[in-house]
Amino acid sequence: MAEPPIRSVNWRRDPWIQPSQMKQNIKTRSICLCCALSLAAVVGRAQSQGTAGGANSINTPRPFDPGSNTTNPSALAVQAQNPYLGSVPTGPVVPGILPLGLHDSVLRALRANLGLIDTEKDHAQARAARMRALSSLLPQLTADSAQTYQNLVENSIGLNVTTPAYNFQTAHVNISQRLLDVPASHEVAAARKNVEASSAEFADARNIVVLAATSSYLLVAAGQVRLDTARAQLATAVATEHLVRDRVTHQVSPQIEGIRAEVVRRSAEQRLAIAVANYEKDKLALTRIIGLPLAQEFRLTDGLTYTPAPDQSLDDLTAVVENQRQDIRAAIARVGEAVQNVKAQSAERLPTVDIRASAGETGFNYSRSIADYQVGARISVPLFTGRRIESDVLTAKAALERREAELADIQARAIYDVRTAMLDLKASETSVEVAVDNVTLAQEGLRQARDRFENGVTNSVELVQAQQDVAEAEDNRIASIYSHSLAKLMLIRATGTAEANYLTYLGVR
């Protein structure tokens, strides 16, 4: 199918990010919840923005609204801010207008997006936790020096004998080593699995950032096109009003015709004003996601175009999911971590063995000191702990069962995501085809209505309706093209290859 010209757009607010994983800590759980909230906010703004829902209007799947979240103290403030919709602005404001391509936007987002920064710091904390767990198995070496001033009191046959006050100095090097500690060994293994999970979660977060940046970029590109269309529709409405006014002046048409034409022109002005406001807000949302200063002016260098998706079967995509979905890898690592925690708690019943040694000098001063040393070993066997170990084991087993259930759910959800993305992609391809045909039919209807009106065969009602049909068809076509692009993004997000394949699927070089 040939690429249709792009002249207008009608926003449809819809989900963009589905929760990719069940994470261990509260912060990452809130990130997934925010993604789900963004995924649930959809069609509202497009429907309120201008499409009247005529007979040629086609509902297209899953547009994206990067500005659906808010930090304003209002009724929506009870929602947590989605960190993937925020960023840390970097760099000064560039004078003039900054050319901004899709690839450049994604690179900026991967450097400055708040969600990715949070996930990166979580990964750093996981590495630090592994280092701390490992330290319990390594030798501990310390050095100390002390000077003491004291006297001694000795009881000898009921008499207190006091030694006059004296001072002495000590300097020692101490070493301790845990020779046998099975629970600590399993805790180190659990910490290693935690690092693997956080690494996979960080890779998954990069895919989320790519999805957020590209979706927002395409939304701005669609807004840019809609502005041009709104201006063209206003120019058409003004020309029609002049034509009708001239006919009313020459008493060829009644006064009601002029009133209708004026209403159409004012409605076009209103649509243009709304389009300008929404376009500017979408640009601000994009700057928030990719880390541009809010005062930075920019223009997009990549437009909204229709390119067919690569032809892939469901079996091929399922195979990709098994190898590329980072949230599945993270869930597998979380199960491994829980297994090690169960082993660590069960091993609390085993004995521990450690040794301690100290060597140094003691004397009245360092020049008159005597070398001394001390070596000892200890074995500790828990005999009765008040069922503490049993309760810890039960808690660890419950956590393991939860992680196993989460893994099974994520594996099933991954296939579900691919199947729904394929369905959305097919539906959006059909929507684009229907929308393009509707534009052609609506434009032909407008041409015939204008001819009939100029020849006095009909009144302005038919002409006004034909103009409205063209506006709706144009809006729906751009919404369909945008929705098709978003469906492709959701597909590569479902397969876990958003960062690697977004340029290919969107047809951007």
From TrEMBL:
Keyword match Membrane: yes
Keyword Membrane: yes
One annotated GO molecular function: porin activity
Cell location: Cell outer membrane
Region (Disordered), start-end ranges: 50-74
UniProt GO cellular component terms: cell outer membrane; efflux pump complex
Gene3D superfamilies cross-referenced by the UniProt entry: Outer membrane efflux proteins (OEP)
InterPro entries assigned to the protein according to its UniProt record, in alphabetical order: OMP_efflux, TolC-like
Entries under Pfam families matching the protein: OEP
Keywords from the UniProt entry: Cell outer membrane, Membrane, Transmembrane, Transmembrane beta strand, Transport
Compositional bias ranges of the Polar residues kind: 50-60
UniProt xrefs under PANTHER family: OUTER MEMBRANE PROTEIN TOLC
Family of the protein in this entry: Belongs to the outer membrane factor (OMF) (TC 1.B.17) family.
The protein's name in its UniProt record: Outer membrane component of tripartite multidrug resistance system
